[in-house]
C-alpha cells in the first residue's frame, strides 16, 4: 500500500512540474511588403528557437547558447518589459521584445517613428540579436 502512495505522489509531482512553464523571452522583427516576422525564443536552459512566418510563428530551427548567458538575457529583457510594458507602437517595420513567465507575457513593440522606444530597450534588443546571431541552428525534427 505504501508503494501505491509513493507512486501517486511521484506522478503528482511530475504532472505539476510539467505544467510549470519555463521562463523565456522572445525577440524579433517583421513587417514590410511581405509582412513576415522572424522570431527568436530563448529559454532559461539556453535553448534558442528560430521561426518565421505571418501570424502564428512556426519554430523550425533550434540551437543552444550558454545557460548563464541565456539567464542574463532573460533577466535584462524581463526587466525592460516590466518597466516599459505596455508599449505598442509598431510601424511598417517593427521590432519587439517579450518576456513570458507562467503564461503571462509582457511585450514592447516599436517601429513607429512618432513613438520612439527607450534607448535601453534598443540596447537590450541589439544584445539579444548579437547573441542569437552566433548560434548554429539545426532543423527541429
Gross CATH architecture? 2-Layer Sandwich
Provide the domain count.
1
Total strands: the figure is 8
Output the number of helix runs.
3
- Biggest beta sheet summary: 8 strands, mixed
- Could you say which overall geometry the principal axes of the C-alpha atoms support? globular
CATH class: Alpha Beta
The computed structural class is alpha+beta
pLDDT < 50 runs, ≥5 residues: 1-21
Give me the strand/helix succession.
HEEEEHEEEHE
Strand content: 35-45%
Share in helix: 25-40%
Strands of the widest sheet, in order across it, are 5-7-6-1-2-3-4-8
Annotate the secondary structure layout.
Layout: H1 2-19, E1 24-31, E2 36-43, E3 47-53, E4 58-64, H2 67-84, E5 87-89, E6 93-101, E7 104-110, H3 119-132, E8 138-139
Parallel strand pairs: 5-7
Antiparallel strand pairs: 1-2, 1-6, 2-3, 3-4, 4-8, 6-7
Helix pairs in contact: 2-3
Short description:
The protein is of the alpha+beta class. It has 3 helices and 8 strands, in the order αββββαβββαβ. α2 (67-84) packs antiparallel against α3.
Your description of this structure?
It is built from three helices and eight strands. The protein has one domain: Mago nashi protein, CATH 3.30.1560.10. The protein is globular. An eight-stranded mixed sheet has the order 5-7-6-1-2-3-4-8. It starts with a helix and ends with a strand. By secondary structure, it is of the alpha+beta class. Helix content is 35%, strand content 36%. Strand 2 and strand 3 form a beta hairpin.
Key phrases:
36% strand; Mago nashi protein; disordered N terminus; alpha+beta; 141 residues; 3 helices; eight-stranded mixed β-sheet
